[in-house]
Amino acid sequence: MGTGKSLVGKILERQTGFRRFDTDELISQKLKMPIEEVFSAHGEERFRELETETLRSLFAEGPAIIVAGGGIVLRAENVDLLRQLGTVVWLDGDQATLRARIQRLDNRPLLRTANPEVTLSELLEARQPIYKSAADLRVDITKKKPERIAELILKSIRDLPVGE
After folding, report:
1. What is the pLDDT of residues 57-73, one digit of tens each?
2. Can you spell out the DSSP letters for 52-85?
3. CATH of region 5-159
4. Could you give the angle at which helices 95-103 and 116-134 cross, rounded to 10 degrees?
């Protein structure tokens, strides 16, 4: 949340020529409603089910850039699916950077709480170990422009040992 993954995904799509699939966009298109409405109308559990269904549908697409929401790794099945689909990249940033980026956006259903800053801290603390174990590589996005983040991702993937 707030890492710039959607924009970075678009840049990677342009740079690589691979199609880009954003799981949130696909879910939103399927249900014909924004993600925040999906959460309020159907709940987080149904949203997570839709993420899994969406990942499964992407196996037929061939090489692609897949942009997934930060909570997708909360289901072990999704982590397995992501790994089968390719290299899993964790865009990580310090909490101050993420907080500043997220405060500019009001469509974050998980942060609609009495104290969004505490909620963000709790989400990050709970998810970081999951991100760390799920990711093939980590890219620090702190103080970096999306173009530089995309460049670092491509370089890191090229540098991975064969067979990873």
Report:
1. 999 998 899 999 888 99
2. HHHHHHGGGG-SEEEE--GGGGGSHHHHHHHHHH
3. 3.40.50.300
4. 120
